[in-house]
Amino acid sequence: MTTKLAHRPFTPNYAVPPGDSLVELLDAVGLSQADLAERTGRPKKTINEIAKGKAAITPETALQLERVLGFPSSYWNTLEQNYRAALARIEERQRLSQHIGWLSNFPITEMVKRSWINARTDKVELVEELLKFFGVASPEAWNEVWMRGKEATAFRKSSTHDSTELSLTATWLRKGELNGREVKCEPFDATRFKAALIKVRDLTSHDDINSSLKTMTAACAAAGVAVVLVPEFPKLGICGATRWLSSDKALIQLSLHYKRADQLWFSFFHEAGHILLHGKRDIFIEQKKASENLQEIEANNFSSDFLIPPEQYHKFLAQRDFSLSTISNFAKSLNIAPGIVVGRLQHDKHIGYQVGTIFFVRIDWAK
């Protein structure tokens, strides 16, 4: 596989002061700096400092140069603006060069492979790519947003502690946020969302997972919830996350961590539970390691009960018949996938983890 490099306009790593152009023009028309000072009414020292790049060409000076030398003031203003911008780029590059080590916290190679950022051979340019991806101006600002902002609260609630793991989680969440903002949604409406969940529940029994996911995302978008699927990073262990992108747009982000359809549906309804049960200011992260946080427990219960109503589940358990045919018939009566029933029975330790695996539907990302 060949790596595609994005086209970038040429940006020199040097700055040419407008004074260079001024000196060349004076030589061309046969004027000295003293002559120019006399004709513009500017001190000789000021003209000399402009020529050496020590003093800026102000808009007023640009107008005077236009009258004396015939070049429009916009020309001189543009030269000055470009010069100051080039100086700022050089200074910024020097500052960012001190943060090259910051890159080691992030999955740069994988991000480039997934086309989340552009490939760069220059390390400083890679730092710039990463900052653009996160929408921050500096690594210090990244720390403020992701390590001390509301995202950090979600990290502390989850089992994530290692600094590299925090950076991986932040990267995954940011991609979900970017994808979610591209999803066109109606304003959030809880009633419509509950109706969408009933529709999605029926989709779990369908064989075509891609078609079901397409229908699910459309139904949720119509209720004000953007649903996005973002591949996780190896060993990160994140199943899903929920956050509000605005007061009337929620985001459900899923990872396909377990590569099983029943687990995907459980994670979806888990995140839906956060939207309906909990506040809009928090970010909720569902990880492979079960959390004892009350809100996570509530979201788990919401998902379990929505997929398999408690009353019907208890009646089913009372029969003490967990044969494959009985499981299949029970799932059919609920209009859900039998793998969901098996997953619930395994989790509740009514059957072993080797029982009923024939009903599990494996799913993976398309190559």
Describe the structure.
By secondary structure, this protein is α+β, with helices and mostly antiparallel strands. It folds into 3 domains: 18-96, lambda repressor-like DNA-binding domains (434 Repressor (Amino-terminal Domain), Orthogonal Bundle), CATH 1.10.260; 98-170, no CATH class; 171-359, no CATH class. It has helices at 18-29, 33-40, 44-51, 59-69, 73-96, 108-113, 123-134, 139-147, 150-157, 163-182, 190-203, 209-221, 261-277, 294-307, 310-319, 324-334, 338-347, and strands at residues 225-229, 238-246, 249-254, 284-287. A hairpin with a 2-residue loop joins strand 2 and strand 3 (249-254). Helix 4 packs across helix 5, helix 11 runs antiparallel to helix 12 and helix 13 (261-277) crosses helix 14 (294-307). It is elongated. The two termini are 13 Å apart.
What does the radius of gyration come to?
30 Å
Q: Low-confidence spans: pLDDT under 50, at least 5 residues?
A: 1-7
Number of helices: 17
The average pLDDT is 91
Give the helix proportion (percent range): 55-70%
**Per DSSP, what share of the residues sits in E-state strands of 2 or more residues?**
5-15%
The span between the termini is 13 Å
Question: What is the β-strand count?
Answer: 4
Number of domains: 3
**How many strands, which pairing sense, and closed or not: the largest β-sheet?**
4 strands, mixed
Shape: elongated
**SSE run:** HHHHHHHHHHHHEEEHEHHHH
Classification by helices and strands: alpha+beta
Strand arrangement within the widest β-sheet reads: 1-3-2-4
Pfam families: HTH_3, Peptidase_M78
Organism: Janthinobacterium aestuarii
Protein name: Helix-turn-helix domain-containing protein
InterPro entries: Cro/C1-type_HTH (IPR001387), IrrE_HExxH (IPR010359), Lambda_DNA-bd_dom_sf (IPR010982), Rad_response_metalloprotease (IPR052345)
